[in-house]
Write a structure and sequence with these properties.
Low-confidence stretches: none
Number of helices: 8
Number of domains: 2
Distance between the termini: 35 Å
Radius of gyration: 18 Å
Helix content: 10-25%
CATH topology of the largest domain: 2,3-Dihydroxybiphenyl 1,2-Dioxygenase, domain 1
Largest sheet: 8 strands, mixed
Oligomer: single chain
CATH class of the largest domain: Alpha Beta
Strand order of the largest sheet: 2-3-4-1-5-8-7-6
Structural class: alpha+beta
Number of strands: 16
Length: about 300
Amino acid sequence: MLTRIDHVMICVPDLQQGIAQYSKMGFNIHAGGAHPGKGTHNAIALNTDDYLELLAVRDPAEYAASGTPGKPGTTHTGLTDFIAAGGGIRYVVVQSDDLAADVAAMRSRGVDVSDAMAGNRRTPEGQELRWKSAVLGPKNPLPIFFIEHLTPMAERRRQVPDGGAHPNGVYKLERAYIVTDDAEAAAAIYANVLGMPKPTLHKGTVVMSHMAIFEIGPTGLGVVTPYAPGPAADALARRGPGPFQALYRTTSMGAAARWMQEHGMPPPVRGVRSNGEHAMLATPEYTCGAYIGFVGPE
């Protein structure tokens, strides 16, 4: 079963610079380690049950030799082109508690999806983390893929000192948003891939979009089309369809805003969600190409 959004993958040109920038936003983020044979490395900011990932090319020669740059059906295909075009959120990663069963269910609905493939990386301290992942094929080219962790969260927490203790008060991913030219049509495709009913569209007042929200466990995946200028319209104009925003729940928006300002970032843009909650956004020029939102009490 698909249980939640596991993480968003934010691709950056330089991992150390990305770590520095997300630290300014108040994320407790640390180098995660290398992906053997792929030429990439990452950094991780753990929340209670999910996380944020920064990904960069570590060794261009190893990346080129890995076969992934031009190989369809892998998450690293076209990575350098994506980063050169500005980076940002490349994939929304959905967690499964039985990936083989979920792959079989997808295929029964006609979804083009890979087998569950083994993956691993080694942390700077030498800890090996293992998982299985499945990616969508050319007939369903959506910016999502699926993961089943083989290393329990309690062990994964060892990779990040004080994992989850963020100065910005973030403790969970609330939603991830994907912009498209036609949310109504795209929602039908996502519904088939996810094996979920197609949501009714409603108006979002922060991203200024018509939104179809898929509730995946405690997290939401929003498929949106802009109806007015705003973050979604900006992302669609700059990069075309794809993921553009991650919204995090914090214990204090005021504390998050103060941390950012004290570390040289401008005040986040404020807005009011359709449910009346206040939210704020850090914009792409300060977040390595993504919109990063915060919602919670002052």
